[in-house]
What does this fold into?
Amino acid sequence: MSELKEKILAIMEKNSKVSVEDLAVLLGDTEDNVSRAIYEMEQDKIICGYHTLINWNKVNNEKVIAMIEVRVTPQRGQGFDRIAERIYNFSEVNSVYLISGGFDLMVMLEGKTLQEVAMFVSDKLSPLDSVLSTATHFVLKKYKEHGTIFVSQSPRERMLITP
Amino acid sequence: MKNMLAERTVGIKPSGIRKFFDLVSEMDDPDVISLGVGEPDFDTPWHIREEGIYSLERGRTFYTSNSGLKDLRNEICNYLKRMYQVEYNPDTEVMVTVGGSEAIDIGLRAVLNPGDEVIIPQPSYVSYEPCTILAGGKPVILELQEKNEFRLTKEELLAAITPKTKVLILPFPNNPTGSVLRREDLEDIAEVCIEKDILVMSDEIYSELTYGAKHVTIASLPGMRERTILINGFSKAYAMTGWRLGYTCAPHVILEQMLKIHQFAIMCAPTTSQYAAVSALKNGDKDVEEMRISYNQRRRFLVHTFRKMGLKCFEPFGAFYVFPSIKELGMTSDEFAMELLNREKVAVVPGTAFGDCGEGFLRISYAYSLDELKHATDRIARFVAEIRKEKGLI
It folds into this structure.
């Protein structure tokens, strides 16, 4: 990948709202080159979306987030991909990772209530043929996500003028 | 008592920055945005802070040897060799100091005899001149030129040298101009220093923050190591200003005299900071790289923005300052900074705080987030447009 693309990604990963004009200034390149690079990365599905990082704790909108460890039997010729696909196709599921260690898939999902999440596990996930076992963990508090700290921090105490 | 104070000290002008600092503090207005800070906006990387905490937990709360922890001196030497291809003996040629500032002071005190002249290129950091005077030397101000992008040239240096010249201060990458010296500039200067037998005090505190070619230390040029007092530290590169930790390297004959002053005046640099600094040098390269990338983006943003305002702004390749010119607005730096503060509540430091030849310039720091810079430069742009209108400059 071109150096320009890597630099664009480094900035956009932290700020997807950054404008093409600003990117060109920050990286010392032309707006044409920058917008072409972004277009290409969108086409290549390197850039897969522009989401917003929200601290839902601050919104009166109760959400339950669960992390589910899933042990599965890999299938001949397909490895874990087939079973992962069956799981990630559920719209309730936010992310699925193949994990090394004591279990195989880490499934993260969001529901409105504990009940809703529990029902998903017992009705949809556990009955799948290749699933051997699940262990559901509910998130109590988010401290940091995508490199951003969610808990409030004390303000900086830099002096206003120093040599 | 009749003669309570030392004349030499009384004769020293208070720092021009101080005046402005008092003004801004008096306003005590939360709406004031400052671009006047000479220290990084980043927190010290966590692994460094953690090492400091750990040293406290372990009860490492005693003095270290005068010259600093052996481990730290070793790491400093490894670092200088790895980064700048210059070798020092950790046992006899390196000393850990309380910031780069201490090294400037004791370095000058170690080498100056009464009447010895010290060439100080300006605009530059505020302490070279007073430290020279306090050490009994005579400051000779060399005014750097905008047309050379505030680089020191061989011709300027030659013109400033007299038979009494003992030391040249070499403050690059430069605060406040952001100017850097290239290898060929340094080679020219080295040639003069060797021929005229002059010592160099090279203050390289911003050496990690260059945005074009990598920093070159004059000590690495042939014949220069033996006549150079190299000063560096942790404040700017690792965002560790409050830890008060710097270091200096010099030939043993000079360093042992500096060490004497340090030993009697300071004893040793803070122990906690020294332990933390070992981690900075061992594991900090990645942090520095990340900060440098960020500074570089902000630097481009500011140069672009000031030029868009129609102000002359040369592209600086070091430190974290831009130095735009406001000469065409027909105001002094002081007037501009005061008016800007009063009308738009943006604090910047007038170039004159760094020497008379800073007149007509402003030091704008980019040790701020991009959002803060945008906010502040929007206000500056509005102010500049207003001034142009009032003065009929459009």
Q: What stands out?
A: Chain A has a mean pLDDT of 92. The radius of gyration of chain A is 21 Å.
